Amino acid sequence: MDYLKGLNPPQREAVEHTDGPLMIIAGAGSGKTRVLTYRIAHLIHAKGVDPFNILSLTFTNKAAAEMKNRIEKLIGLEARNTWMGTFHSTFAKILRVESEKIGYPSNFSIYDTDDSKSLIRSVVKEMKLDDKVYKPNTVLSRISGAKNRLISWETYLNDPFIKADDEAAMKPKMGEIYKIYQKRLFKSGAMDFDDLLFNTNVLFRDHLDILNKYQQRFKYVMVDEFQDTNVSQYLITKKLAAVHQNICVVGDDAQSIYAFRGADIQNILNFEKDYPDLFVVKLEQNYRSTKNIVQAANSIIAKNKAQLKKDIWTQNHEGDQIELIKASSDNEEGRMVATTIFEEKNNKKLNNSDFAVLYRTNSQSRAMEEALRKMNITYKIVGGLSFYQRKEIKDLMAYMRFVVNRDDEEAFKRIINYPKRGIGDTTVEKILVAAYDHDIPIWEVLTNANNFLSGRAANAVDDFSTTIKSFSIEMERKDAFDAASSIAKQSGLLRELYEDKTIEGLNRYENVQELLNAIKEYVDNPENEDKSLGAFLQEIALLTDNDRDKDTTDAVTLMTIHSSKGLEFKQVFVVGMEEDLFPSQMMMQSREDLEEERRLFYVASTRAMEKLYLTYATTRYRFGRLLNCEPSRFLEEVDPMCIRVNKKLSASMAGAFRNESSEGRSGFVGLQKPNVRPMTTAKVHTPSPDFKPSNTNNLAAGMKVEHPKFGFGSVQKIEIEGINRKATIQFDNFGEKTLLLSFAKLRIIE
Ligand SMILES: Nc1ncnc2c1ncn2[C@@H]1O[C@H](COP(=O)(O)OP(=O)(O)OP(=O)(O)O)[C@@H](O)[C@H]1O
Ligand SMILES: [Mg+2]
């Protein structure tokens, strides 16, 4: 059995422990997924298990495909017959066969998020409720949360705590909506995404014969990324494994990043209780990354209190230090990333696909995409759309296009009733027909609405054309940014998004803000002479046109950190390492939130095999204003021995892009402090009121200093002169710390 040679002793132990409950809790890059793969191969090849009897559940379809591929390499085509997929895809398949048992037709439809939201919208309307209070997104995420905790609408309506909660949120009708929504789904023979898991639980609960059938079929059950399963998923696996108990889960508590969607890290702890015979394997050797990266990752996660103890180490070579890149703006950050990729590709003979750029929020992709396009580097966005393809961006762009060119039919169709202004499909149809029949531009129909439409419809259309006219006037007088901001506000689009407080809604709002930021940068750039909205639109149209015919097989990967779980790349850039961006301001209500952000940083850093770059910008346009940004607190948490400042890039790039550096820009305002400040530790130091960082060029051993977080301490020693200069300081309350002086903020006391 040759393949067993590719495993270290604990990995091999896990692979060979085929029967009975097994949990592998291990750090990033220690071969958890590899063990699962080899275990499946081993079950088939050495134990003679029929591939049909093996079920493996992964987090993404991509992960499943990859795993299948790897098993095929180990044991050949037989691997094809194992059951492998995400929870949703696997149990959708099973429900297809069994749905009649729970009253659904076998050809039931699966509603995607858009379908679900549209149904909720109708329900809210029929119930005559205010759709500003009961927004589809908010309602859906509430219902989804309930389903993931296996709370049916019946339970929901009768639970006093839930009721009190909804009443506190001024949404007392939530349970009623849930009920009607669910009945309507049922009547339409449809399930939403969460129903796929919810109904599987119902099926297994109410039909023991069927449960028994699948218990027989899936003699071996395996779950990857176990730390991110929710209650509903956990119970399905528990039921399936109840008889044979051949269940193997692998996970890393330090990489749990989906709490906001109901994932429950408690599942790991419960597992030990649920299976008294549990065999636990720890994997601590990392095979993915260099020593520097492993050490840095360890130092990051060590700051979290809530974690299982693990010592991750590696035999891999030391590797390069982690590179810290400072840019003067988000666009410069993009250019630095693109230039570095370009140089590294040439110097090290790497492919585009060896690189990944990871960011905290989707809207950050904009600056990266533009820089990569300009340098002609092929990229792909995984798990999302490219910035200019996103709905909210297309909506606002459609407004701008229509204001610039009132004959633009596609733009017209997008915006005529968005946000809702009571112009229905029939009216739109009438307008289009009128324009066609009389062979006149749409705009002419709109401005003579009374001739073509009657009553309410005519009035609504009249209001619309008046609004567009006022935008046109503004556009003539103002620069692109002022015109676009005004359009975003007056059209009601910004408000519509702002009021949607779900994660998705926030994301959309940020994207629109980011588009406005891009326009502001365009206007502020002295190289652009024509600052009109039309000129900006043209530039963007040309930029996005490159999309066609691009071969995407060898592409740099751009994605959010959330989507990067389980993947690895030779070189990884984690961009936007700034306070309020990462850790995200939106997610910082409590210590737990901060710890989840930190786990995200841990996930991001551990994707890198050979080289990790952390980049940040000192200014960034937010809400149309150029704001100062502070480097992320996370940067200070990385062991300074593994990090260095990229002097070459900082110097040469600053020169190359002098024209666009932040100096000389107008509209500069100071940093806005968020009003919620999270607790880093229980006894955080409060900086003195007059705290101002000192120049540390002459800092020497023996001096007394104050640090904004660690408080007072005395300098023990100074190491390495120049840009990587470090100070070891003994803090009164926080012990000894080594800080990189180029970004540690210290006030010298004496
Ligand atoms: N014993 C081994 N010998 C050689 N390479 C190994 C060994 N174990 C793991 N690897 C390699 O190390 C890398 C990381 O492994 P894998 O992706 O399985 O880790 P993981 O624990 O699942 O990581 P993550 O926590 O990020 O999901 C892969 O490239 C894998 O092939
Ligand atoms: Mg993995």
Automatic annotation (TrEMBL):
Name of the protein in its database record: DNA 3'-5' helicase
Ranges in a coiled coil: none
Gene3D superfamilies registered for this protein in UniProt: 1.10.10.160, P-loop containing nucleotide triphosphate hydrolases, PCRA, domain 4
A Pfam family per the record: PcrA_UvrD_tudor
One GO MF term attached to the UniProt entry: DNA binding
Family to which the UniProt record says this protein belongs: Belongs to the helicase family. UvrD subfamily.
Residue span, UvrD-like helicase C-terminal domain: 291-566
Superkingdom of origin organism: Bacteria
E.C. number: 5.6.2.4
InterPro entries per UniProt: DExx_box_DNA_helicase_dom_sf, DNA_helicase_UvrD-like_C, DNA_helicase_UvrD/REP, P-loop_NTPase, UvrD-like_ATP-bd
GO cellular component: cytosol; DNA helicase complex
Reactions listed under catalytic activity: Couples ATP hydrolysis with the unwinding of duplex DNA by translocating in the 3'-5' direction; ATP + H2O = ADP + phosphate + H(+)
GO terms under biological process: recombinational repair
